[in-house]
Amino acid sequence: MKALILLAEGFEETEAIQTFDVLSRTGEIDVVLASINDDLFVKSSHGVLIKSNILLKDATLDDFTFLVLPGGKLGVKNLEESSLVKETIKYFSDHQKCIHAICAAPPILYRLKAIDKNNPYICFPGFEQLDNGPSYQKDENVVNSPMNVTGKSMGYTLDFALAIVKHHLGEEVVERIKKGIFGL
Asked: How far apart are CA 92 and CA 126, in angstroms?
């Protein structure tokens, strides 16, 4: 199983790196960081330079089981302005592959018609799409639906990442990971 995490200039580093870490700990998910730019190095919202594994333009999308979109206000703006990212989201949606998003990123999926108005989701307050939009779950921190896991904000990244693990690999793997990360 392979996961593709997109990095755009201004991405929220906790949402990308903690998700990368948790998914990698499964031992069953090969996690790949992909720069949407022409450079492997991508600057986060707090100026941390992260080296991606690949450039998105070089990725073979069929090789990936699911896609992850981290938030960060500028990062999400850059994701949404990229025609390559739009094509990538459309590919995953058209091929019935899961797309998971957190913070300011989930509404991109609605705007690009990767989820419909009946799909429950959560995002950072103020970014929700309420006009004919999907079913916004304002009281939830993480929402799991058949094709998406969405998270509210950076503070819920661990819950978001563990929900992705549960979505793809089940509760037993989540419990094993929790033992390792909490020292149980």
From this structure: 26
Is residue 103 flagged as an active site residue?
A: yes
Residue type, 72: G
Q: Over its length of 184 residues, how does the chain's per-residue pLDDT go in tens digits?
A: 999 999 999 999 999 999 999 999 999 999 999 999 999 999 999 999 999 999 999 999 999 999 999 999 999 999 999 999 999 999 999 999 999 999 999 989 888 888 877 788 899 988 876 565 668 788 899 999 999 999 999 999 999 999 999 999 999 999 999 999 999 8
Closest CA to 34 of 18, 19, 50, 48: 50
- The DSSP call for residue 132 is S
Beta strands in 25-141 (DSSP E): 30-35, 41-43, 49-51, 54-55, 66-69, 98-102
CB 113 within 8 A of CB 132: no
Taking the C-alpha atoms of residue 20 and residue 58, their distance in angstroms, rounded to an integer, is 20
Question: Choosing from 76, 99, 103, 177, which is the catalytic residue?
Answer: 103
